[in-house]
Design a protein that fits this description.
single chain, alpha+beta, 4-stranded mixed β-sheet, 5 helices, rod-shaped, Sporulation protein, coiled coil
């Protein structure tokens, strides 16, 4: 009996039922439309964030590669910077005429040190002293002019080995015995 009453009530209020169902469907449609747009906006935002994240990741990889490249370049620079590229000799002599000749011969004698590590030479300073100390240089055989070299100072600056030497005139008759 109760079922019969409900069915009769529905027949009487068909319009209300149709309006209710129509309102329900329109409401659900609007609900889906509004939240669908919000979800679509969120998905678009997520895709934009993924893209931006991917771009930043690529940028990070490029920067890491650049850091590695610059580090290698810096190592090569430090290796080259730590190497002797130039030798400068300063001569303290009683005779200013022979200064250039002595300087030239000493620089020639020290050319094996070009390209060597400054650290190695600074740890073995006696090596230069052994090579130069009391070195006898013939300036002019016809005038029987020779000098003896004494090392005063050694310094390193930038890529330059700078050496100060003092000469002492030891001219005598046995000039021909000395090897140039």
């Amino acid at each position: 009996m109760m079922m019969r009453g409900v069915v009769q009530g529905l027949k009487k209020n068909r319009r209300a039922l149709v309006m209710f169902l129509l309102g329900f469907l329109i409401g659900n449609g609007l609900f889906l439309l509004i939240y669908g747009e919000k979800i679509d906006g969120m998905l678009s935002e997520r895709n934009a964030m993924y893209y931006a994240n991917n771009q930043k990741y690529k940028e990070i990889l490029k920067l890491q590669e650049e850091i590695v490249r610059l580090a290698r370049k810096g190592e090569r620079y430090r290796e080259n910077q730590d190497r002797i590229q130039k030798i400068v000799v300063e001569v303290d002599s009683e005779q200013s005429v022979i200064t250039d000749l002595v300087k030239e011969q000493i620089e020639k004698k020290l050319t094996p040190f070009l390209g060597k590590s400054m650290q190695w030479i600074s740890n073995n300073p006696d090596l230069i002293e052994v090579i130069l100390e009391k070195e006898q240089i013939v300036i002019d055989e016809s005038q029987k002019l020779k000098v003896e070299v004494h090392l005063k100072y050694v310094s390193f600056y930038d890529e330059t080995l700078k050496i100060w030497i003092q000469t002492k005139d030891i001219s005598s008759d046995d000039v021909s015995n000395i090897v140039k």
